[in-house]
Known about the structure:
homopentamer; alpha+beta; 52% helix; 8 helices; 7-stranded mixed beta sheet; Beta Polymerase, domain 2; Methane Monooxygenase Hydroxylase, Chain G, domain 1
Amino acid sequence: MFRKRRPRIGARPGTLSIPRQAPEPKIHMITYDHQQLHDTPVEDVAELERAFDTSTVAWVDVQGFGDRSLMHQLGDMFHLHPLLLEDLVNVPQRPKAEDYDDQMLLVVRMVSLDDDGEPNSEQVSIVLTEHYVLTFQEKHGDILDPVRKRLRGGKGLIRHQRAPYLAYAIADTIIDGYYPVLEAIGEEIDDLDEVVITQPTPDLLRRLNDMKNRLVMLRRWLWAQREAINTLMRDDSELITDELRVFLRDTYSHCVQTAEVAEMYREMTTGLMNTYMSAVANRTNEVMKVLTIMASIFIPLTFLAGIYGMNFEYMPELHVRWAYPAVWCAMFATAGAMLGYFWRKGWLGGDG
Amino acid sequence: MFRKRRPRIGARPGTLSIPRQAPEPKIHMITYDHQQLHDTPVEDVAELERAFDTSTVAWVDVQGFGDRSLMHQLGDMFHLHPLLLEDLVNVPQRPKAEDYDDQMLLVVRMVSLDDDGEPNSEQVSIVLTEHYVLTFQEKHGDILDPVRKRLRGGKGLIRHQRAPYLAYAIADTIIDGYYPVLEAIGEEIDDLDEVVITQPTPDLLRRLNDMKNRLVMLRRWLWAQREAINTLMRDDSELITDELRVFLRDTYSHCVQTAEVAEMYREMTTGLMNTYMSAVANRTNEVMKVLTIMASIFIPLTFLAGIYGMNFEYMPELHVRWAYPAVWCAMFATAGAMLGYFWRKGWLGGDG
Amino acid sequence: MFRKRRPRIGARPGTLSIPRQAPEPKIHMITYDHQQLHDTPVEDVAELERAFDTSTVAWVDVQGFGDRSLMHQLGDMFHLHPLLLEDLVNVPQRPKAEDYDDQMLLVVRMVSLDDDGEPNSEQVSIVLTEHYVLTFQEKHGDILDPVRKRLRGGKGLIRHQRAPYLAYAIADTIIDGYYPVLEAIGEEIDDLDEVVITQPTPDLLRRLNDMKNRLVMLRRWLWAQREAINTLMRDDSELITDELRVFLRDTYSHCVQTAEVAEMYREMTTGLMNTYMSAVANRTNEVMKVLTIMASIFIPLTFLAGIYGMNFEYMPELHVRWAYPAVWCAMFATAGAMLGYFWRKGWLGGDG
Amino acid sequence: MFRKRRPRIGARPGTLSIPRQAPEPKIHMITYDHQQLHDTPVEDVAELERAFDTSTVAWVDVQGFGDRSLMHQLGDMFHLHPLLLEDLVNVPQRPKAEDYDDQMLLVVRMVSLDDDGEPNSEQVSIVLTEHYVLTFQEKHGDILDPVRKRLRGGKGLIRHQRAPYLAYAIADTIIDGYYPVLEAIGEEIDDLDEVVITQPTPDLLRRLNDMKNRLVMLRRWLWAQREAINTLMRDDSELITDELRVFLRDTYSHCVQTAEVAEMYREMTTGLMNTYMSAVANRTNEVMKVLTIMASIFIPLTFLAGIYGMNFEYMPELHVRWAYPAVWCAMFATAGAMLGYFWRKGWLGGDG
Amino acid sequence: MFRKRRPRIGARPGTLSIPRQAPEPKIHMITYDHQQLHDTPVEDVAELERAFDTSTVAWVDVQGFGDRSLMHQLGDMFHLHPLLLEDLVNVPQRPKAEDYDDQMLLVVRMVSLDDDGEPNSEQVSIVLTEHYVLTFQEKHGDILDPVRKRLRGGKGLIRHQRAPYLAYAIADTIIDGYYPVLEAIGEEIDDLDEVVITQPTPDLLRRLNDMKNRLVMLRRWLWAQREAINTLMRDDSELITDELRVFLRDTYSHCVQTAEVAEMYREMTTGLMNTYMSAVANRTNEVMKVLTIMASIFIPLTFLAGIYGMNFEYMPELHVRWAYPAVWCAMFATAGAMLGYFWRKGWLGGDG
């Protein structure tokens, strides 16, 4: 989760470090204005020329980086700064927004639940210009489909706005993806609330630890994304209009809200850990009480039995007829006294 | 407490996500100036036209969001920005103040104690313009009644001021609602102060944990509200006059004060948790001491009895007349020595 | 310590909430210039007219708020803003400085040790104008006597300065009152330093907890007072001259210093709590060691005695003449071996 | 790791404090422009005159400070401020950037893994002017070789840029060196994740403590370096061009990212410590359970056996034929009851 | 360490509070320019007139405050503001820099190790004007000797600079004094690193606590000094030249560095405390294991011996010839089984 692919130390800035298992790039382009929309997979990079048509908005989506030369081709075609290109490919980057003159880079981290309910994450880099938007995703997948559907549907603002609005819509969709992940963690916390008291095993603590680390991670990403959105909002380039700022403010406040939920869950996880620790201490206490009760009752009795098991020649009690029942009585009395003492201490109830 | 209703991921901004169990909207309108006051439930949205009369102040109060088309109608009538409308309905939002040109949105979170003394919370959104105030409440209920009474009473400043003062009065009433909730928690803390030492059960720790989570929540809301009020105070629109600023400063300082009390209670709860942990450790210690005392006294005695229970042929002591009483003496001496040792250690007192 | 008297929710701003047990107001006025000084209790509010004489400085001191109409009379006479009047009476307020055009409100919290050495606190509100100073104290008492004495003494700067200097002198005296309270806590910490190791009882932990809560409280007040003094210093009204600013800076630095001492004591208290926890753990350890030593020595010996207490017909050892002393020897050897083992482990020393 | 060589207290500013074991300085100079490159070790300081040739960029690299007079010679030749010279030599300095008119000092801390995988660190000071760059390294070694190779290779931007770009390339290479060190720590954390539960020894805790201290150290350096890079970026001297700022921003974001990873690892280490503590508590619990089970089963049985070992004359049971087997039965029943009780408590499973 | 001498509450600002044991003041004056230097103890305050000679720099050093009238004489002669004079004498003050028109006050705290290696501290106040520097030390002693030597030596910058440089040199010398104190603590931490595991006594924890409190103290002083130096640097009076600012920046960075070392040591001390707690828990664990092993082995055997010690008439085993050795065998087998069980659990190794 924290490992970073990176070029060897001291490599030239802009060196791309593509891991072997990176999937083959798949490119997809949508061009639209409020009247029409073209939506095609791209086989040949040359087709991307169309993105430069200033009368429409173009969205070029690249999934997977497994082809170094293609990446360089894209970099050349769209005049991407070498450092910008490096940030797209050398994942993970910290979420951030950076201004490259007439282009803007927004790096965000998308999270989703896989089929087992485990959260996984992927970097999405959004390059934003006046007329087109480039998105670069680490893996194949159709997480941006809702945006495509809205584009195809043609309703709402999205088809009447320029490229920056599209970039916003994409970023907003990605931030929205944090809600279900946080909700799943919230449910897990609810489930564990009972378990930490009834079954406090070290493995459970490890699970809580993992959850806490995940939450720290999520909050960190959200915090960085909050900053990135803020950078966008404060940017004085012409790309960001006042109208768009209102929408970005909305995304900003989603970031803050989800970050606060993540923080709150982290604190609740810490609370569960303390409860766990306390449950272990209580269990030890309970075990000790059983031992103490058993030993305190029977050790004196055994001593008494031991007394009359001695073989002294002159032990007058041994020859008294009612001595044996008397000893039994004494024993019951002793045991009763001990039990009474423990009862008064409240140790015979199960819960203290 | 932390769950958020929200539209599906990637939905168009402004999409309203209304849960099934949301109550039917009830609309109520008050229009007033310093001479007269009209106070009527509203059956037909068209009646709300009156709110636009610039010679009076209008307060439109909507309780419950269970009718999507009505919400859209209201949105259209009052020219609410789609994102503003979304924030009203898609609860919970983080408390905030946002400026939409000639309208201002103030989202606050109202808390109250229900009949069982459990705190519950509800979002109240206040839309503020020069001539009217809209309030949107999540649930039915009459928590803003004190403001209505003051309006009807007609005394004081409220009937002589414009809409922004009304909005302030509403927000101030809601912040006031935090005091009794915090006071109830303060009383619970006082109650638990004794209990954590005398009855440290894991359930108690869970209760403390819950209380801490609630306090963190309250402080977070208050903090966000503090920021929101501050945003209002710093706003340079004509809605906020210097005279109103003095009142907002008062509300601001209530937010700070309640947030500090919440923080202080949170620290006291943490202190109780530590006391709890210590009480458990002390209990284990006490249990151990009983065991140690019992075992240390009787195990040596049993050993002694065991010695003279051996069946060796040549054990001269067995045949000595005063041996049996001598053994008893030795036993008492041993037990006494042990007790003396424990006494010196201070283990026989109950408290250490 | 944290409870707040307040009007019912939603009450009109400026509503005074006076508790039943509030003492009757006692009013006292001093008017002075560098030549003369009048010092009289005030029976009739009308006498306060003299405070408006611009050739002298007037100090009106009100102790106790138990008369609502009198408070309103005072409010009217001195043109106090309703919110200002509310802040005077509805204690406790958070320490703060607020600017009301030609008046300035400084709310501070005075602490003192009562006869039992317990700290208690009281709100003092100072209303400061060019020609007079109003002080409002929650309870009767003569804590501002040192200032009165300085006035009567007539030495020093105080008789040659205007009202703001008097207000400074009062605030400074109140901040000075934190030193002995902190010193008393410091001495208590020194006392407990030893006790936490020798007598770690849960009650002690509760006492530490209380102390910590008190320190948190004190630091919070001092911090708020620091801010309030800072607000005064930064105020650009004509009330605060450059000369006075130098004096306020001194008070400011006293606030910082006492706040830091309070913070340091809080950390020391936390340290004592950790020592306490450790002392409890060590005690358990010690108890366990005694048990382990006793049990480990005598249980094997008892077993040996048990062996030769069996009634088998064919146990050749029983009939050997030196068997009995041999068993004693074996027992001593076993016990010696165990003791040697514990000695090597260092368990026979008393300390850990 | 934290020790600082420093001149004696009160020494003149600029006093060099060179430890005895400091290695002999080795000087190496590279001069280049986009067409040619000279790369030679420097035997005589006079050769360094070439660095002042304004048509090329010169890089003078000094490794080791073990020659005071040479250091002073260098200081004189390059007009280094006495304080600057002191900072170069009196290691360790906190990473920082300082502006000395036409020179800029950038102190960074380089970390690397030695052959045993232990991280060690070294101060590298970079003096940056328009035409030359001086680097001062604490020890011999070729950690800046990647930069030299890039220079010799002659590809990329580096040969076409001025000295500030070279300084950037050096600093960037050094920051890059934190990745493998953090990765090694990350792997160690993964390894320990299992071990803390299965083998919680105090030595392990010490190792975790060491790791945490190292991480705190790394984060601190990175944080200071982040500030230093920021100082460079914000510097308004002519040395830092807008083009260079883009590159510095990249280095800045690497600092932030590595600092966050270090912080995250620190939190994970704290998590491991908690798991460790819990594992110890669980072990004690398990030990106690074995003791309690054994003792609770056999102590009552021994008592029963003791009863019938008593020597009373009148014990009717002793003479009943089926009494002995009956006692065995009673014993099995008792033991079974106890086992059943423990089973119900869940103490017979191994885990908790 | 934290006690503050202070005038009684409400005393006139500027009241000097001199404790009885304060040493007699010793005054010493050095006047110099780059050509000559006069260095004499001062018997009569009138001699100090020479300090006002604007052609030389004068340094008046006062050690000990035990003479109130002398302090007032000095105050009058050098036109010290009453509050400034109060700050000099009423130690301890928080380190700070304050601007009094043509004078500047710099309060710093000097630390040093006494002969037992215990750190002690003393306030040094530096009053800085254009032509002279006054220093006020709490106790006699020659800690500023290095500066005097540098003055007498006459080398370096110091004799060519004005009074502010002298003040800098004094402050820098005092900050330098923190290094050996921190180093001594660092060595103590190294020593304790081993001891906390092998000998975890409560006294050790107390020692760690003391160390932590000392470190918190040191960091606080350094932090305040950092602020004070910063205040000086940012001061726009003519006293602070650009050239001097470079030197102050150096002192500033020393403050930051030492404060960070103090913070790091504090964290390491906290780490040691955790290790200590863990070591205690491990010891308890070890004690428990010994008990459990001994008891689990011998209690069943004793039971077995008890069985055949019963006196039933009909116990066929008693009369079987090989029964006795058979019982021994059974006992060995049982003991072996238990040992095997503990071996598998890993409890027979010594390490947890």
